[in-house]
Specification:
heterodimer; A: alpha+beta; 2 domains; 12 helices; 22% strand; B: mainly beta; 4 strands; 45% strand
C-alpha cells in the first residue's frame, strides 16, 4: 500500500489534468504556476486511502485587467477492499478574477472552467481559505442588505443582525450597511477598531469623500482573515452565490439561457392545472 | 462582548430570468441559498432551494414542459452540503 501511495505523490499524477487545462483554458487564457502553490494531502480513514493534489495557477499577464487565479484538485481515492481500482477525479475548486477583468472575457473564461467546477470545494475555499482581500465585495453588501439576511441562532432566540433599508436612497443604504457591520461587530471580542473605522467611513461618505463602495473595501480589507467576522462577510458576499450560479448554469443554461433579474418581476405565477400538478410533484424541491 | 460563538445563518435570495425577451419563452427562477456557520466554525452547511418557478403568460406548454423536465434532472442533493472543515487543515 505504501508504494501505491508514494507512486501517487509525483508531478506525473497531475499530467492528465495539466493536459486537459492546456487544451482548453490555456489556449485563450495562458496561465502559470504559483510558487508554493502545490499541496499533497494524504488521508487514511477506516474504509479508504486518499491522495489529494491541490494546485494553484495564475494568469501569465498580471495586469489588473487580465489577472485571474484558479485552483484545481486531483483526488485519488483507494478503497481498502479493492486496492487495484482507483478513479482519479479532477475538479476546479476555486477561482478569482480581478474586478477590472472585462465582462465578456470573464464569461468566456467561465465557459471554459464550468465543466470542471466543484461547488462544494468552492464554498469551502471561499469561506475558509480565500483571503478576504481576494473577494470582490465593493458593491455586494449594498445589494445583499436589500435581499439577504443574517441571523444569529442560539437555543432560545433567532436574532436579525441588521435592518433592511427603508427605501433605495443612499441615506437608507448607508444606515443599513452600518447596521450590518455593527450587528456583526457585536459578536467580536474587540469590536472597537472596526466600529471606529466604520464611523470614519460613514462620516467621510456623508461629507462627500470617496464613494461608499470604495470605503467599504478599505474597511473590509482591514479585517483579520481568521475571524468569524471575515467568514460571515465572505458568506454575505456575491462570491458566495457563485457555486449556485455554477449549479444552475450547468443544469439549465444550455437549453434555457438566463440572467440575473434586478428589477420587478414581469411574469405571472404558474396557474395551468397541468403545470400546477407538475409543481406539486416537485414540492420536495420547491419552497412554495 | 461575546465572541462569534452562536450559529450564524446567512441567507441569499436571488431571481434569475430568461435571457430571451420572447414572451413565449419567458421564465423566472427564484432561489435561496442558506449558509450556516456553526458554533466552533468547524462546519459549514450550505443549502440551495428553488423557491418558485414562473413563466410569462404567453409561455407555450412545450417551453414549460421542457423547463420542468430540465429541473427534474437537476441533482439538487449535490448542492446540499455539510462540510467538515477540520478535514481541511
Amino acid at each position: 500500500m505504501t508504494v501505491k501511495i508514494l507512486k501517487c505523490i509525483n508531478q506525473e499524477m497531475l499530467s492528465p489534468g495539466v493536459m486537459a487545462l492546456r487544451g482548453s483554458i490555456y489556449e485563450k487564457f495562458p496561465f502559470k504556476d504559483i510558487k508554493g502553490g502545490w499541496e499533497v494531502i494524504i488521508t487514511i480513514s477506516e474504509k479508504e486511502y486518499r491522495v489529494t493534489h491541490i494546485k494553484k495557477e495564475q494568469s501569465y499577464d498580471v495586469r489588473d485587467e487580465a489577472r485571474f487565479t484558479f485552483e484545481w484538485i486531483v483526488d485519488i481515492p483507494f478503497k481498502k477492499s479493492d486496492l487495484e481500482s482507483f478513479k482519479p477525479v479532477m475538479t476546479l475548486s476555486d477561482y478569482f478574477v480581478n474586478k477590472r477583468f472585462p465582462l465578456a472575457a470573464r464569461k468566456e473564461l467561465l465557459d471554459l472552467l464550468l465543466p470542471v467546477m466543484n461547488s462544494q470545494e468552492m464554498f469551502k475555499r471561499l469561506i475558509f481559505r480565500r483571503p478576504i482581500a481576494n473577494t470582490n465585495i465593493e458593491a455586494d453588501y449594498v445589494s445583499f442588505i436589500k435581499k439577504g439576511s443574517i441571523t444569529v441562532v442560539d437555543a432560545d432566540h433567532v436574532t436579525d443582525i441588521f435592518h433592511k433599508p427603508a427605501d433605495d436612497t443612499p441615506e437608507s443604504e448607508i444606515k443599513a450597511i452600518r447596521s450590518l457591520f455593527l450587528g456583526i461587530a457585536r459578536y467580536l471580542n474587540d469590536p472597537m477598531p472596526l466600529i471606529k473605522s466604520l464611523e470614519e467611513t460613514i462620516t467621510s461618505v456623508v461629507k462627500g469623500g470617496p464613494g461608499l463602495h470604495e470605503q467599504l473595501r478599505t474597511v473590509v480589507q482591514s479585517i483579520d482573515d481568521s475571524t468569524g467576522l471575515a467568514r460571515v462577510l465572505k458568506g454575505a458576499s456575491f462570491e458566495a452565490q457563485f457555486p449556485v450560479f455554477v449549479a444552475l448554469r450547468a443544469a439549465f443554461s444550455a437549453a434555457f439561457p438566463f440572467k440575473r433579474i434586478r428589477g420587478a418581476c414581469k411574469s405571472s405565477s404558474l396557474t395551468s392545472p397541468t403545470y400546477s400538478a407538475l409543481i406539486s410533484s416537485l414540492k420536495c424541491y420547491l419552497l412554495l | 462582548m461575546s465572541s462569534l460563538t452562536d450559529t450564524v445563518r446567512i441567507v441569499h435570495d436571488q431571481k434569475e430570468g430568461s435571457a430571451s425577451e420572447d414572451p413565449a419563452r419567458y421564465f423566472e427562477i427564484e432561489w435561496q441559498l442558506t449558509l450556516e456557520l456553526t458554533k466552533h466554525t468547524t462546519k459549514l452547511q450550505a443549502n440551495l432551494m428553488i423557491k418558485n418557478v414562473k413563466f410569462g403568460e404567453e409561455a407555450t406548454q412545450e417551453v414549460k414542459q421542457d423547463l420542468m423536465t430540465a429541473w427534474l434532472g437537476f441533482n439538487k442533493s449535490a448542492y446540499d452540503i455539510e462540510l467538515d472543515i477540520d478535514a481541511l487543515f
